[in-house]
Write a structure and sequence with these properties.
It is a single chain. This protein has four domains: 1-44, no CATH class; 47-208, 2-Layer Sandwich (Alpha-Beta Plaits); 215-266, Orthogonal Bundle (DNA polymerase, domain 1), CATH 1.10.150.20; 286-384, DNA polymerase, Y-family, little finger domain (Dna Ligase, domain 1, 2-Layer Sandwich). The protein contains 15 helices and twelve strands. It has helices at 5-20, 29-36, 57-65, 90-93, 103-109, 120-134, 163-178, 190-197, 213-218, 230-238, 244-248, 252-259, 263-269, 300-320, 353-365, and strands at 49-54, 74-77, 85-88, 114-116, 140-145, 148-152, 182-187, 205-207, 286-297, 324-334, 339-350, 374-385. The strands form three sheets. It has a five-stranded mixed beta sheet. It has a four-stranded antiparallel beta sheet with strand order 9-12-10-11, with helices on one face. The longest helix is centred in the C-terminal third of the chain and has 21 residues, at 300-320. The structure holds magnesium ion.
Length: 410
């Protein structure tokens, strides 16, 4: 039913979107055909996607490796002055301790909270073991962070017969081999699989079948939609939009007017549709962060302090993404809006905090003494090296090595 105009139109848009680097990849043609209207000529591409998410990852690894920490409220990170909690154990979460919370706030909420230093090398090693487990079941693995990934299991490499069985097999391997627990969401697209993995956390599975997708999405709070942060959620709320059903009730024009480039995604997602492929070769071009200051920074000392804070934030992101890169760039916007960037590239790539700090500080020092007030400061790591295996995917996002099994059940 989507042959003809709609088909070529979506193909067109997908191309245009690619070159414009849009935030939400538009549907590949095959996905449009399969989801919106099956005919016997359609390619067999109803996907089976699993989103796997380790439970309280850093904290669970620490509790696994130190029996004295088990059953206790625990925060990883956050003990330093102005430190931020990187992860909290479930025991700590009961007190309202959350990741990204300042350590002082966490301690106030839970006075007996134990703090341990993060051991990113260990988390990274566990993450690689995790990747090894995933690879037994699929070649199409898209990591989102050290402890989270999308898997396209449509090809059912291990021949387990259902996506749910694959999710359970993966969770079993993780429990036995890593002595950790993971939760999984099983569905036909990425958006729903990700939301579903949160549904029975910790140590749970939740399955949303294609015929259940629209109803499942309708009940979700709007803030659980991909890309809806606190600000957007607030704007939605002021427009009377609280749930997926409320988003669905809006016209595309209305969504475009209020949410700009997210509109198309929201329009589809609120109908349970999300055509993004699991991309094994997901390529990030850079990881960075910047801050705009309410009062201009006008002394070298203030700039150095501000830079340390940005180093903290950006390094945490680099770590979370298991990234290494060769180029560090500093961005400075002056009070008069003149903007400059300075970059340095190194070999071998930056893969320690020390190296990242050294390069970042060097770039700032070269710009001192500060000639005028600074309103924005930012750092970026780019020329990233992929930590993934080479991609095994064909153009359709379906594994080339295995036949597509239309019959694989959820
Ligand atoms: Mg997690």
């Amino acid at each position: 039913m989507l042959y003809g105009a709609a088909y070529s139109n979506s193909l067109h848009r997908a191309r245009a979107d690619k070159s414009a680097g849009g935030a939400y990849p538009l549907p590949r043609w095959s996905m449009v055909l399969s989801i919106n209207g099956m005919t016997e000529n359609d390619p067999p591409v109803m996907r089976k996607i699993i989103h796997v998410d380790m439970d309280a990852f850093y904290a669970s690894v620490e509790q696994r490796d130190d029996p004295a920490l088990r059953g206790k409220p625990l925060a990883v990170g956050g003990s330093a002055k102005r430190g931020v909690v990187a992860a909290a154990s479930y025991e700590a979460r009961k007190f309202g301790v959350k990741s990204a919370m300042p350590g002082v706030t966490a301690r106030r909420r839970c006075p007996q909270l134990l703090f341990v230093k993060p051991r990113f090398e260990v988390y990274r090693a566990v993450s690689q073991q995790l990747h090894g487990i995933f690879a037994r079941y699929t070649h199409i693995i898209e990591p989102l962070s050290l402890d989270e990934a999308y898997l396209d299991v449509t090809a059912d490499l291990a021949g387990l017969g259902s996506a749910t069985a694959i999710a359970e097999a993966i969770r079993g391997d993780i429990r036995r081999e890593l002595r950790l627990t993971a939760s999984a969401g099983v569905s036909y697209n990425k958006f729903i699989a990700k939301v579903a993995s949160d549904q029975n956390k910790p140590d749970g599975v939740f399955v949303v079948r294609p015929e259940e997708g629209a109803a499942f999405v309708a009940t979700l709070p709007a803030r659980r939609f991909f890309g809806v942060g606190p600000k957007t959620a607030e704007r939605m709320s002021s427009l009377g939009i609280q749930t997926g059903a409320d988003i669905r009730a809006q016209t595309l024009g209305f969504l475009e007017q209020h949410f700009g480039k997210s509109a198309h995604y929201l329009y589809r997602a609120s109908r349970g549709e999300d055509y993004r492929a699991v991309k094994a070769d997901r390529e990030r071009k850079s990881i960075g962060g910047e801050r705009t200051y309410s009062d201009d920074l006008s002394t070298d000392e203030a700039l150095r302090d501000a830079l340390e804070h940005i180093i903290d934030i950006v390094w945490e992101r680099i770590h979370r993404n298991n990234a290494r890169g060769r180029t560090v760039t500093i961005k400075v916007k002056y009070a008069d809006f003149q903007q400059i960037t300075r970059a340095r590239s190194v070999s071998p790539p930056v893969d320690t905090r020390e190296a990242f700090e050294r390069l970042s500080r060097g770039l700032l020092e070269a710009l001192l003494p500060v000639p005028k007030g600074v309103r924005l400061l930012g750092l970026t790591l780019s020329s990233l090296e992929s930590s993934q295996e080479p991609a095994h995917t064909g153009e359709s996002g379906v594994a080339e090595s295995g036949p597509v099994q239309e019959s694989l059940a959820f």
